[in-house]
Write a structure and sequence with these properties.
alpha/beta, Rossmann fold, two-stranded parallel sheet, 7 helices, globular
Length: about 230
């Protein structure tokens, strides 16, 4: 029996790499999409059955060609995890329409394009999962996060619409809100005074994604929140 295939976007040094490792260790072939070729090569060498695809998600032609390559190499993915994200800080007077469009292209359009390519195979098999990693901006429009929040909110609504269509066809769709600072080099520098337990661990996020993907059909999660125990909410 051939291995199942997990397609992961946004394979950066934190959550994306942890997702790739988790699914590889769980017996999946992992197709990894990112812009950093060096990181992808390192993960290819580390993870058996994995392959990296360098791609700028905002380039529609390149994205379509990349998904075609993934399907040619592995067949239709069983799991699609959209972890890629782009955000902009500043109030609405400070960020440009071009920046807003760029955020939308990665957070929403890329999700839509890839899902259109991979969902039919899942529908045909009557099983599979699409998981989107989001953040608190999807739920509120704070003054200096309009350029991010507006696109993440659109992303969540698109994901919910996909879930309502795909769930009855046997395909699990879930949106994970990460209400926390992820433990990364740049977040440690941004909050050097914070204790270790202020940060959410990428491996723990990946573990929750694994759990959601493998939930029994009688108890599926859609709207899933993650935060450290000390987070104020």
């Amino acid at each position: 029996m051939s291995k199942k295939v997990a397609l992961v976007t946004g394979v950066g040094p934190g959550t994306g790499s942890s997702i790739a490792r988790t699914f590889s260790m769980g017996g999946y072939n992992v197709a990894m999409i990112a812009r950093d070729e060096d990181r992808l090569k390192l993960l290819e060498n580390e993870l058996v059955g994995s392959k990296g695809y360098v791609c700028e998600l905002r380039n529609s032609k390149l994205l379509d060609n990349t998904i075609t390559r993934v399907i040619d190499d592995y067949g239709d993915p069983d799991i699609f995890i959209h972890n890629a994200v782009r955000g902009t800080r500043g109030n609405f007077l400070e960020f440009s329409s071009e920046e807003l469009q760029s955020n939308f292209d990665i957070n929403v359009i890329a999700l839509h394009r890839i899902s259109q390519r991979v969902a039919p195979g899942m529908i045909k098999k009557g099983e599979g999962a699409i998981v989107v990693t989001g953040n608190t901006s999807a739920h509120r429009g704070k003054a200096n996060f309009g350029g991010t929040a507006s696109t993440k909110a659109a992303q969540k609504i698109l994901t919910e619409s996909m879930a309502r269509y795909l769930n009855p066809k046997g395909v699990h769709v879930a949106y994970i809100t990460i209400d926390a600072a992820i433990d990364l080099e740049w977040t440690r520098k941004a909050w050097p005074e914070k204790p270790d337990n202020f940060f959410i661990q990428p491996d723990d996020i990946a573990s929750e994604i694994w759990h959601i993907v493998h939930q029994p059909k009688s108890a599926w999660t859609f709207d899933h929140w993650l935060r450290p125990f000390g987070e104020v909410w």
